[in-house]
Automatic annotation (TrEMBL), chain A:
<dbReference type="Pfam" id="PF00512">
    <property type="entry name" value="HisKA"/>
</dbReference>
<feature type="domain" description="Histidine kinase">
    <location>
        <begin position="340"/>
        <end position="555"/>
    </location>
</feature>
<keyword id="KW-0418">Kinase</keyword>
<protein>
    <recommendedName>
        <fullName>histidine kinase</fullName>
        <ecNumber>2.7.13.3</ecNumber>
    </recommendedName>
</protein>
<dbReference type="InterPro" id="IPR003661">
    <property type="entry name" value="HisK_dim/P_dom"/>
</dbReference>
<dbReference type="InterPro" id="IPR036097">
    <property type="entry name" value="HisK_dim/P_sf"/>
</dbReference>
<dbReference type="InterPro" id="IPR004358">
    <property type="entry name" value="Sig_transdc_His_kin-like_C"/>
</dbReference>
<dbReference type="GO" id="GO:0016036">
    <property type="term" value="P:cellular response to phosphate starvation"/>
</dbReference>
<keyword id="KW-0902">Two-component regulatory system</keyword>
TrEMBL record, chain B:
<dbReference type="GO" id="GO:0006508">
    <property type="term" value="P:proteolysis"/>
</dbReference>
<dbReference type="InterPro" id="IPR029058">
    <property type="entry name" value="AB_hydrolase_fold"/>
</dbReference>
<protein>
    <submittedName>
        <fullName>Peptidase</fullName>
    </submittedName>
</protein>
<dbReference type="InterPro" id="IPR001375">
    <property type="entry name" value="Peptidase_S9_cat"/>
</dbReference>
<dbReference type="GO" id="GO:0004252">
    <property type="term" value="F:serine-type endopeptidase activity"/>
</dbReference>
<dbReference type="Pfam" id="PF00326">
    <property type="entry name" value="Peptidase_S9"/>
</dbReference>
<keyword id="KW-0031">Aminopeptidase</keyword>
<keyword id="KW-0378">Hydrolase</keyword>
<feature type="domain" description="Peptidase S9 prolyl oligopeptidase catalytic">
    <location>
        <begin position="414"/>
        <end position="626"/>
    </location>
</feature>
Length: 555, 628
């Protein structure tokens, strides 16, 4: 990070901070908006959901109006007080808002009636009137009969319905088939808290009625009609609160109900009831704090989702930052490697250059000089060759571009030749070995040689001049080969142990100022991996290091 | 490769051959086709044959000279359709034509057999006419009954076929439901009804008043047949007076006592008899058990008629018309697998000549046998019925359609039934049950069905289904029930009360509400109202029963898929009620297939409506019978 702009690095610390600040602002902003949205939508729902409350609460009324009431027509005028009483009982049991029912056992005939309606020759009048209800005393069930006519009033519901029937019959088109709806509207009167229903006669009967209006039929017919007047009590409507969390209180109130003490603490809305209840409305109330709770319930899941998105964004940012960091470390290592390698190549090249210059500028070369330069050139060329081989082999191994040569290797001969080549190079290197349990095994001798050379080279390199010792052991233990390379060198600090097998890693110390590219141990690890083995290290600073290689045993 | 192909072709050919052994699907129309020639009448001298034939979608009157075989078309109708016709003399015919409108305006004509002279006797009458005696009296009168004075009662008139004038012969005080003349055309018998009881009235001649002879409850059959020529004041009648089953008796009209029993049997129910005016004797009586059988009262007639039996083996036959001399007959035959044909039979030559097939599309060999069955009901009454199995080898575990017959009264009879054969052809076994309350099994069986509509009658049908299941004929998971009128009523009740037994079903013009049914009894049947109250229930006193027995009040208990067909213009049905019922069923998520059908006197329209109905029914059964 400390590298300046010229090296191609960009600082991204401030970028990171900016990013985090921005998404945090966004997060807070979206939370704010989400809350506002929740508030608005709950307030809207408060106004709109009342339709559902109305629908659910009025369902029994609709069922009564559309399904139960038309059942009267099924009796075709044959209802009598006993059957009507049973019919009313089932209605009152099921529909609590029906408070009282008046039953007019009605006759349609050609004989004029005193109580009822006479139009032309057609007369409609009640034979008897009964009332049914929870609080109707037994002696007041029968309101009217032919012998007791006093309870009949002109303004009674009966006349309104009779008038409707007469009008309908008068205007009846005997050829056309009246629709179901037409019949229903003409045979029911819906007024405030009251529904009057007259059983719908058959088409044939209606035609006869029309005929009866104009002339007296012979024999004089008497048709039975049943008229029922249902008194309804809107306060008995069972209010169904479909959103108990939204509406704190729902009341049935008269249409004009508008309390003065509406404080700011309460939200209210209202909706008018339909049909016979049209003078009443549903009045829905909730306190502000009650609404707030609902808003919070609505807002919570949105906030959680936002938080999750925010968290994921942060995590992604962190991961990108970490990867960038690792990459820049890698880049630094490679940069160092190139530096080292240049340096590494520089020494032999400059030695070759000096030797070349010397040969070029010398007028004559003595035998000794010629030999010296020859030896120098030869050695330095070998060094360069070795460096290049190492680099090449490493990339090959790393890319798995080479194949294993399977040859039988005599372990003693192999170790001895290694010792020989190293002691030739470094006469002060004291190398010992032991072999236990086997003599030969199958492996690639070149790869094995590289492995042994590298480890021996390292042992030599990282030992004090007076203590350059290496003990190699090869043992067959439980079917696997265990090689140990123990030196008395400077050792490796435990904190560095994890890194020594990494590419381009070098411990910064006095021993590796030159002739090292930091590839040695990484190369060894790659080799061992390639040979399907394992490499591990134990070390104590100042006492020495032991590398342990485990290879599969093939013989 | 070639060999393999040949093998494949061979196998395919074998399969195809095997298939063709089965009976394929026969189109719906074929079962119900109406013949284009019908209503044969033979002239009194037996020399000419008249018939109605479909010409440009209208039935027209034709006369064929039997000697030459030449036909003459007498009418060219455009608006009205002929509803009946008859010969009044060897050269003259009378025909009665009605239009399609509600008023049923009618015309009456007399026409010469060669079409040369036509006289219109009445035009655009809104009343109905029934013929009581078609034989000419004084060469100019026939006796008819008409409701022209009062639409609810039929008076008797002498109709002058020369000028169309009608003079009243007997005024109906309001309670006379039937009239009868003697062999000479003199009105002697009237049957009065108060709805429940029928009284036989008799007058010796036209100058004397009608006097009551006997009174019977409507459960009792008393059906006047003929006046024997040489026995004054005696009437032959089919009677179940003091009997369970109908017998043929001779009644003394003076005392009201049975004078003689002509034919009686404890197990046989007399349904018809044939009296020959020329021979002045009973030719045979027909008794119906599971099928109709003729019993001859003497050897001479047996010899004559058994010749027809020999010419038409294995069929049931009826004499539709005859000449005055009992020499030429129009005979109609049928079997369970064939609606049959019309034949002309000449006794003197013992020759049978085929006139026409009722339905030439029906091949007897593709139809299914209708077999009589009987089983014990849960209260140990013997119930009879018919079972028709689909053609094919499989005789067990079949899908079943139960067809309860219409009512009240009535019964299923052995013979070709288009509906049954149609269903059998579609692979269903068809069960028909003559539940209690059906006619033809005696008085007590008939009375056992009174006011049992939603109870024992329905249980008889269910017991039939259980019997089929117990005998492994029915697949208990594939049973449907369907009916017309009261049959539909029984089907609907079964569908919600015995939902475990059936998987689907429906009704065609079904009665869904007994109140409406009783309210809707036509004006000319008003005198029978009390009888209906007894059979079905009294809406004033039996309100609770009628309510619980009417499907319309129980829409909330239906669950099975329903098929409902009705005619929205049917004046007898409270259509609004049907629609309300279906609406409620649909609201309760009952799968309802609703068909609005057209009906009318026009045979073409009727056929189209019928085809649509049965196609819908077929589809409905296919889709729903397995849904259990």
């Amino acid at each position: 990070m400390a590298l300046d702009k010229k090296s191609g690095y960009r600082k991204n610390f401030s970028l990171g901070v900016t990013f985090i600040v921005l998404i945090s602002i966004l997060f807070v902003l979206s939370l704010f908006l989400a809350f506002n949205f929740s508030k608005k939508s709950i307030e809207n729902e408060f106004v709109s959901e009342k339709v559902n409350v109305l629908e659910q609460s009025i369902k029994p009324y609709n069922d009564f109006f559309q399904n139960k009431m038309p059942e009267i027509s099924y009796y075709n005028g044959f209802l009598d007080s006993a059957t009507a009483s049973k019919f009313v009982d089932t209605i009152m049991l099921k529909y609590s808002f029906v408070s009282r029912v008046t039953f007019y056992d009605t006759e349609v005939k050609n004989m004029p009636v005193k109580d009822g309606m006479n139009v032309g020759k057609l007369s409609i009048g009640p034979k008897s009137i009964f009332q049914f209800g929870k609080n109707v005393a037994a002696d007041s069930i029968r309101l009217f009969s032919e012998s007791d006519t006093k309870s009949f009033k002109v303004g009674d519901d009966f006349n309104a319905m009779a008038y409707k029937l007469v009008t309908f019959v008068d205007q009846l088109d005997t050829v056309a088939v009246p629709t179901q709806e037409e019949l229903f509207t003409n045979f029911s009167v819906v007024s405030s808290n009251k529904i009057t229903y007259l059983n719908i006669p058959r088409r044939e009967d209606l035609k006869v009625y029309k005929d009866m209006m104009r002339r007296r039929l012979n024999p004089s017919p008497v048709y039975q009609q049943d008229m029922l007047v249902f008194q309804l009590n809107p306060n008995k409507i069972k209010v169904v609160n479909t959103r108990p969390l939204l509406y704190q209180k729902i009341q049935v109130e008269p249409l004009t109900y508008d309390p003065i003490d509406t404080s700011d603490e309460n939200m209210t809305t209202e909706i008018a009831l339909p049909g016979a209840f049209s003078d009443f409305k549903l009045y829905l109330t909730s306190s502000k704090s009650y609404i707030k709770r609902e808003i919070f319930i609505y807002f919570m899941p949105i906030a959680l989702v936002l938080l999750l998105v925010y968290g994921v964004l942060l995590l992604v940012a962190f991961l990108i930052y970490r990867n960038l960091n690792i990459n820049s470390k890698m880049f630094k290592l490679q940069y160092d490697f190139v530096n080292n390698l240049t340096h590494e190549f520089k020494t032999p090249v400059s030695v070759i250059k000096i030797a070349g210059n010397n040969i070029k500028s010398a007028t004559a070369l003595s035998q000794k000089e010629q030999q010296l330069y020859g030896k120098i050139l030869d050695e330095e060329a070998d060094k360069l060759n070795g460096l290049m081989n190492k680099l090449l082999a490493f990339t090959q191994i790393e890319n798995k571009a080479i194949k294993l040569n399977q040859e039988t290797v005599n372990i003693r001969d192999f170790i001895e030749s290694t010792i020989e080549s190293h002691t030739l190079k470094h006469p002060d290197f004291k190398m010992t070995y032991e072999v236990v349990g086997f003599k030969t095994f199958i492996t690639d001798p070149v790869l094995l040689g590289s492995l042994f050379d590298n480890l021996a080279e390292n042992a030599y390199k990282y030992s004090k001049p007076e203590n350059k010792k290496l003990h190699m052991s090869a043992k067959l233990i439980k079917g696997v080969l265990v090689f140990r390379f123990a030196d008395k060198g400077i050792g490796i600090a435990s904190g560095e142990l994890n890194n020594i097998f990494k590419k381009f890693f070098r411990i910064q110390n006095e021993y590796n100022q030159m002739g090292s590219v930091g590839l040695g141990l990484a190369f060894c690890k790659e080799l061992v991996n390639f040979m399907e083995g394992e490499i591990s290290v134990k070390s104590k600073v100042g006492l020495g290091t032991e590398f342990k290689i485990v290879l599969p045993y093939n013989s | 490769m070639l060999k393999r192909i040949i093998l494949l072709v061979f196998i395919a050919a074998i399969c195809a051959c095997k298939r063709s052994g089965d009976v394929g699907i026969i189109p719906v129309d074929d079962f119900f086709k109406t013949q284009d020639k019908a209503y044969y009448r033979i002239s009194p001298d037996g020399k000419s044959l008249s018939y109605l034939k479909l010409q440009d979608k209208k039935l027209d009157l034709f006369v064929e000279n039997l000697a030459t075989g030449k036909s003459v078309q007498l009418t060219h109708l455009t608006e009205k359709s002929i509803s009946f016709h008859f010969w009044t003399s060897n050269n003259e015919l009378i025909y009665y034509a009605e239009d399609d409108t509600k008023e049923r305006k009618s015309d009456l004509f007399v026409i010469n057999k060669d079409g040369s002279k036509q006289v219109q006797l009445s035009s655009n009458e809104k009343t109905r006419v029934r013929v009581i005696e078609d034989q000419l009296i004084d060469d100019k009168y026939i006796i008819v009954a008409s409701n022209k004075r009062d639409s609810t009662v039929f008076d008797v008139y002498r109709l002058n076929v020369r000028n169309g004038k009608m003079e009243i012969a007997a005024k109906n005080p309001g309670n006379i439901t039937e009239w009868m003349t003697d062999n000479k055309g003199i009105l002697k018998i009237a049957v009065a009804s108060d709805g429940v009881n029928e009284t036989l009235l008799y007058r010796e001649n036209e100058r004397k008043p009608f006097l009551p002879v006997i009174t019977n409850n409507f459960e009792t059959t008393f059906q006047p047949v003929a006046f024997p020529e040489n026995e004054p004041n005696v009437l032959y009648a089919i009677s179940s007076v003091n009997r369970d089953k109908n017998a043929l008796v001779a009644l003394d009209l003076k005392t009201g006592k049975e004078k003689k029993v002509l034919f009686a049997n404890d197990t046989l129910n007399v349904t018809e008899t044939r009296y020959s005016r020329i021979q002045n004797k009973i030719m045979f009586v027909t008794c119906e058990t599971w099928k109709k059988q003729k019993y001859y009262l003497d050897n001479e007639t047996k010899l004559t008629y058994s010749k027809i039996d020999q010419l038409l083996p294995g069929t049931e036959w009826r004499i539709m018309d005859n000449d005055k001399m009992d020499n030429v007959f129009v005979v109609r035959t049928f079997t369970d697998k064939n609606p049959g044909s019309y034949y002309l039979y000449t006794v003197s030559e013992n020759k049978l000549k085929k006139l026409t097939d009722i339905n030439s599309s029906i091949k007897g060999e593709s139809m299914s046998d209708m077999k009589p069955i009987s089983f014990k009901s849960s209260d140990s009454l013997t119930i009879n019925g018919y079972l028709t199995l689909p053609k094919g080898t499989k005789k067990t575990n079949l899908p079943v359609v139960v067809l309860p017959h219409n009512g009240p009264g009535g019964r299923n009879t052995w013979g070709y039934n288009a509906e049954v054969q149609f269903l059998a052809n579609r692979g269903y076994a068809v069960l028909q049950v003559n539940y209690r309350g059906s006619n033809g099994y005696g008085k007590s069986f008939y009375a056992a069905g009174f006011k049992e509509w939603d109870d024992k009658i329905q249980e008889d049908v269910n017991d039939g289904v259980r019997w089929l299941i117990a005998n492994k004929i029915a697949n208990p998971k594939k049973i449907a029930i369907y009916g017309n009128g009261f049959g539909g009523y029984i089907a609907l009740n079964c569908l919600y009360k015995n939902a475990d037994l059936y998987s689907c079903g429906g009704s065609n013009s079904g009665v869904i509400n007994l109140f409406s049914y009783l309210k809707g009894i036509p004006p000319f049947l008003k005198s029978n109202l009390q009888m209906y109250y007894e059979i079905i229930g009294n809406p004033v006193t039996d309100t609770d029963y009628l309510r619980s027995a009417s499907p319309v009040f129980h829409a909330d208990r239906f669950k099975l898929p329903l098929f409902i067909a009705q005619n929205p213009k049917d004046p007898r049905v409270n259509v609004a009620e049907g629609v309300q019922f279906i609406k409620e069923l649909k609201k309760r998520n009952v799968p309802v297939t609703y068909i609005e059908k057209e009906e009318g006197p026009n045979p073409i329209k009727r056929q189209q409506g019928r085809t649509a109905l049965y196609k819908a029914l077929e589809e409905f059964l296919k889709n729903n019978i397995s849904k259990k």
